[in-house]
Every structure is written in structure tokens, then in C-alpha cells.
Design a protein that fits this description.
There is one protein chain. This protein starts with a strand and ends in a 15-residue tail after the last helix. The chain is of the alpha/beta class. The radius of gyration is 25 Å and the shape is globular. The strands form 5 sheets. Strands 1, 2, 3, 8, 9, 10, 11, 21 and 22 form a 9-stranded mixed beta sheet that branches. A hairpin with a 2-residue loop joins strand 16 and strand 17. It is 38% helix and 19% strand. The chain has 19 helices and 24 strands. The longest helix is centred in the last third of the chain and has 39 residues.
């Protein structure tokens, strides 16, 4: 990489010009550099205040892209290991998790499977998620760029304007000004990619912004804290499975829900933690300032309040209006927009970077074909825009109902998250395929074998949430519509039950790589129970598996645990969707029967239980949580570096 002082260059040319040197811009610079193209990266990187950023959690597609093309495999081995994702409702003003509704996905692969893996780099890329400190990851990626002489980094400039040319043969022009010297210059490039984040330079200039006028808008407030040690998380954070295995909730990307808001808890390396909240602007928490609103939400959860203090806070930040959309991600006029420069919905499920990297990969395929003289693949371009747009709407469908009072209904809590996971797990096959392609090629298409070229063609059609199996036989728009109706249906019924005092048991359902099937068939038999656990049973671990499976059935199944895991990953999305549909049908039938019985006067309405009304102070919350004491915690799996 050539790092350029502005006095040395007033005009430059490149195949691809990238605006913005955050994690998405750096990834794109590496991606095109590895494919052999001339790249110019523009950002005022030197002049910016170093700041912590949200987007620390790897999920679905983030891990394979950043470990390979992003060069973060060794760095990830030093990051905080992510055991999965965990969702809780009902911890407000409570010292313990026992009486809460919970859905969790423990995705940390057992160590014996890693030891058995013949290709450990592929195993890490496909399965081993972590939680990163963004500025440190970007430092590593910036250093990786130094190995590429075909990259020029103008790191003290701000792009003032982009002139998109109408004529096919003419390059676009980016006009920049140096923040330090006031010098000005021009970059000419055939393709322009906007990775500038919330500045949204191209989306605004080219009029691709989409108004969200349905009244649903959220605000995010967050801080990063230091001095966060294991002993701050005691026995209340530990979850014990029915088979005796244990895990600790804080070792996952933890989500704490309340009505109209949720809190994320993401532990990081070097005893740091990222904690933030996103709330519906129609239901703002009390507080005269955004920071006061943040603490008002944190203080409602005593176990969390014990961990945090204002003295430990390294930085506070906020986004007043989180959500916005674009109608275009890549244009036939040879420009594209990725990540926050295009659309953002919510930090829930950590999908901002994941979807940004997926769209970046698809756009890179289009750009390469054009730059190699193959012209514009308009069918592929339209597919990228349609499917990516619907994937963002699918994310919005996932979160919208959860911000409503329906979140208090435990059956809704489990079914809503189960539908989300069915979509994510349906993409699991694409995740393993893209991990294989990335590990074998390191992102360079010139290293493709015929089999890998065929694999890329497959992924170009199916690496979208709306186009994975079993959704691929429907249009992206139809998939989004169907998923939205399913979410709305369970939300509507949950609100009806709450309004009419129809109680459902408090449910917990934790799925694991080795136990991916929640026991949803128990739902009809839980009517009189206060609480129930629907977590799946382990069928991967050799000893536990063999104890439960009849001898005749063992002969029909793979003997190797790793092979059983591979088979499970291949079908788990479809299996989870089928189970969800059974749960959805029961939820509909049960609620309709209750409506009929109420109309006939055969059931008496029960008043809705009042939520806890007395907030606790920070000191009281810490003291209350401390009374619960502490106990030995399950060991945190240290990730394996390259």
C-alpha cells in the first residue's frame, strides 16, 4: 500500500475508488487488491478522533469474510470468544434469570470437534465466531493493506463531491480536500464505492434514500467500559442445562429485552465490555440527556448494574435516528453503496457488518466482470439489489414486533426468535460454502478451480437470506412478505392474550450446535405449568448420543461426531422452520379456542399482572445483585489462532 501525502498527488486514477476507511471500506480495499485491481482509498483517517464503534459481534457471514479476506484470523484468536447469542425478557428489577423468558443459541463448537477437523483454518472460518474491538481490528486490516502495491491510501482527505459520468467510457470523478493543508485534488475511477457510513454521500446525491414514514424509529445509546473481570459475573449469570452442562450468559452476545427497548452486553478482550440500548422513540426512557436515558435502562437490571459504573466508562456515543434505507446497493452506472452508507435497521443480531460484507462480495463479482471486459451482468445486478433490499426488510420485520408489548408473552418470545433463527440457520449452508470458497481462494478469483468457480456461481444466486433453502423457490419480495405476516400473526395473538389476561408458561429454549432441535412438541402439555424448559437434547457428543440411540438406529447414522454435525448444519434451518410452523399452528389454534371460550362465557378473563413499578438506584441494584453471591463459572473457551 502506498500511503500518500497530499503534496505529492493532485490527480490520480484507479480501477476502483473507495470512500471511507472503516471496517467495510478496508475490507473492500483488500478484496479488490487481492483480485489484482488498482485501488484508491480515501478517508480523513489521520484527522479523526480514535473512537470505539458498535459492530463488535461476529455473526453468520462476518466471521468467514473477515478471517480470510480481512486478514483477521490470527487477530480473532486473541479476541474474546463468542459462545453464541442469548436473549432474555423479564430481568427488570430482578436479581436472577430463573423466572425470565429465554431463547439462546450456544454456537461454540466443542473443542474435540476442532481437534478432529482436517482443515482447521476452514473450521475457524466456518464456525468460530468472536467479539472484536473495532479500532484494533481496523488497525490490523490497515496494516494488511501494506502488502499490496496496487493500493493507494489518501488518509487525510475528505471527499467533497462525486461526479457520476453518464457516458460509458468516461471515469467518474471524486473531488477531495485535505483537512490539514486545504489542498484539493481529483481521483478518477471506473467504479466508485461508498463505504463512508452514515454520511451516505452517494445515496443522498443520487437520490436513493427511502423515507421510513410508518412511525417506527429507534434511538441507540451505548458505552464501552474497562476493568470488567470474570469475578463481576457471579453465579446468577450461569445457566445449567438439563444434562448437567453449564454455560454463562455473559460469554454470549447477550440481549436483555424490556417493553419498547433492548440492551446489548458484549464482552471484549483486555477486560472491556460494550453495553448499549436501543429504544423505540415512542416510548423513551426517563432522562434529561441521552446518557441519562442509557443509565435509566441499565439500572433496571440489577445483575448488569453490579457490573457497570460510570467510573469504568471509556466512551459514550449515540445515534438519535438509527434506521434508514436505500432503494439501490449497486447501479449499472458503476457505483455501489455498502453497509451504513446504504441502509441500517438495528444493531439486533449484529447484521450491519454481516450484510455489508455479503453485498460487498456480490458487488465485487459484478465489478470484476466489468473491469475484465465482460460487461455488466444486469440480471445479477438486479438480483443483488432486489434480494439485498428484501434482506434488510426481513431484518426490520424481525425486530418490529419485538418492540411492542407482545415481548412480554413468553410463547411469542420463543416463537419469534425461533422464526428468526430458522432464517439464519437456512443460510448456514451458504456460510459453510462461502467459507470454503474464501479459504481456498483467499478472495482472489484467479485462484479458482472449476469446482470453486461453480461454487461462486451457486453463491451468487443463493447467498441471500431471502434466497436460501427452503426459501429460494419464492421471490425475495414474497419471502419478506410471508416472514412479515408470520411475525405479525404471533405478535397479534400475544397482544390479545396479554390484553385478556390469558397466561402462558414462562419458557426457556436454548439450542446448541450439538442440540439444535427445541422440544416444541411439549407446548400443548404445558397449560398448567408455571415454567417449562424446551431446550434440545445433545445428539452430537459421542457418549451422550450413544446412550440414547437404539442399536438399530446407530447403523443408519454417521459414526463420526463431526460428520453428524455437518449433517445437522445442512438441514437445521429447514428442521427449525418445520418446528416453528407446528408451533405457529398450535399458537393459532390455542388462541382461537380461548377467544371462543371467552365469547361463550366459559372462561373468566384474568387481569394482566402488573410489572414491577419501583425502580432501583444503581447502588441498590449493585447491592441486591451482590447478595446473590457468586459461584465458580464455566470456563471461557479461548479461541484458537492461526
Amino acid at each position: 500500500m502506498e500511503q500518500v501525502a497530499q503534496g505529492q498527488v493532485r490527480a490520480a486514477e484507479a480501477d476502483v475508488a473507495i470512500i471511507g476507511a472503516g471496517i467495510v471500506g478496508l475490507f473492500n480495499a483488500l478484496q479488490y487488491a487481492k483480485r489484482g485491481f488498482q485501488v484508491i482509498l480515501l478517508d480523513n483517517a489521520r484527522g479523526q478522533k480514535r473512537s470505539f464503534k458498535v459492530g463488535e459481534s461476529f455473526l453468520i457471514f462476518t466471521n468467514p469474510f473477515l478471517r480470510t479476506v480481512g486478514g483477521l484470523d490470527a487477530f480473532a484468536g486473541e479476541c474474546f470468544p463468542k459462545h453464541g447469542v442469548w436473549f432474555t425478557y423479564g430481568l427488570e428489577h430482578s436479581q436472577r434469570f430463573e423466572a425470565t423468558s429465554e431463547w439462546g443459541v450456544h454456537a461454540d463448537p466443542p473443542h474435540y470437534l476442532y481437534e478432529q477437523a482436517p482443515d482447521k483454518r476452514y473450521f475457524r472460518a466456518a464456525l468460530m465466531d468472536v467479539q472484536i474491538v473495532r479500532p484494533e481490528a481496523e488497525d490490523v486490516m490497515r496494516e494488511s493493506l501494506r502488502a499490496f502495491p496496487n493500493v493507494r491510501f489518501l488518509d487525510t482527505v475528505k471527499v467533497r463531491d462525486v461526479v457520476i459520468q453518464e457516458e460509458e467510457g468516461r471515469p467518474h470523478e471524486l473531488r477531495w480536500a485535505c483537512q490539514a493543508t486545504r489542498e484539493e485534488g481529483t481521483v478518477r475511477a471506473r467504479w466508485v464505492l461508498d463505504c463512508s457510513g452514515r454520511n451516505r454521500l452517494l445515496a443522498k446525491k443520487q437520490k436513493h434514500t427511502v423515507e421510513l414514514n410508518d412511525g417506527f424509529q429507534t434511538t441507540a445509546v451505548w458505552g464501552q467500559f474497562e476493568g470488567i473481570t470474570d469475578d463481576l459475573f457471579g453465579e446468577p449469570w450461569v445457566h445449567t442445562y438439563a444434562d448437567g452442562d453449564q454455560t454463562s450468559r455473559d460469554l454470549h452476545t447477550l440481549h436483555l429485552w424490556g417493553e419498547g427497548y433492548w440492551i446489548w452486553v458484549i464482552r471484549l478482550s483486555k477486560q472491556r465490555i460494550s453495553v448499549g440500548a436501543t429504544f423505540d422513540q415512542r416510548k423513551p426512557p426517563p432522562g434529561e440527556t441521552p446518557e441519562a436515558q442509557m443509565w435509566a435502562l441499565f439500572n433496571r437490571h440489577p445483575p448488569l448494574a453490579k457490573v457497570l459504573s460510570k467510573e469504568r466508562m471509556l466512551e459514550f456515543r449515540m445515534y438519535r435516528d438509527v434506521q434508514y434505507m436505500t432503494d439501490t446497493f449497486v447501479s449499472p452506472r458503476r457505483y455501489g453503496m455498502m453497509g451504513d452508507a446504504a441502509s441500517i435497521v438495528d444493531a439486533y443480531y449484529s447484521q450491519g457488518i454481516s450484510l455489508a460484507l455479503v453485498s460487498s462480495w456480490h458487488i465485487a463479482n459484478l465489478v470484476e466482470q466489468d473491469l475484465r471486459g465482460g460487461g455488466m451482468d444486469k440480471e445479477y445486478l438486479e438480483r443483488v439489489n432486489r434480494a439485498t433490499r428484501q434482506d434488510w426488510h426481513i431484518m426490520r420485520n424481525m425486530i418490529r414486533e419485538k418492540y411492542t408489548p407482545a415481548i412480554a408473552d413468553s410463547r411469542f418470545f420463543v416463537l419469534s426468535h425461533m422464526l428468526d433463527l430458522a432464517i439464519f440457520w437456512s443460510a448456514g449452508a451458504s456460510r459453510t460454502r462461502i467459507a470454503r470458497w474464501l479459504v481456498e481462494t483467499d478472495g482472489d478469483t484467479r485462484r479458482e478451480t472449476p469446482e470453486l468457480r461453480e461454487l461462486r456461481e451457486y453463491l451468487s444466486r443463493h447467498m441471500f437470506y431471502s434466497q436460501t433453502k427452503p426459501w429460494h423457490w419464492l421471490s425475495p419480495e414474497r419471502v419478506r412478505e410471508l416472514q412479515g405476516r408470520l411475525q405479525a400473526g404471533i405478535g397479534e395473538r400475544a397482544r390479545w392474550r396479554l390484553e385478556h389476561g390469558r397466561r402462558v408458561p414462562t419458557l426457556k429454549a436454548i439450542v446448541r450446535l450439538a442440540a439444535p432441535v427445541p422440544q416444541l412438541w411439549k407446548l400443548p402439555f404445558l397449560r398448567d405449568q408455571e415454567r417449562a424448559d424446551l431446550s434440545g437434547e445433545d445428539f452430537i457428543h459421542p457418549e451422550k448420543f450413544l446412550q440414547r440411540v437404539p442399536t438399530w438406529l446407530r447403523r443408519l447414522l454417521p459414526e463420526s461426531p463431526s460428520e453428524r454435525l455437518s449433517r445437522a448444519i445442512a438441514v437445521r434451518g429447514q428442521t427449525l422452520l418445520a418446528l416453528f410452523l407446528l408451533g405457529y399452528a398450535y399458537d393459532w389454534a390455542d388462541t382461537e379456542v380461548q377467544k371462543l371460550l371467552l365469547q361463550l362465557g366459559l372462561l373468566e378473563p384474568t387481569p394482566r399482572a402488573a410489572p414491577g413499578a419501583t425502580p432501583v438506584s444503581l447502588d441498590e441494584a449493585r447491592a441486591a445483585a451482590g447478595e446473590a453471591g457468586s459461584a465458580p463459572r464455566p470456563a471461557s473457551r479461548r479461541n484458537v489462532s492461526a
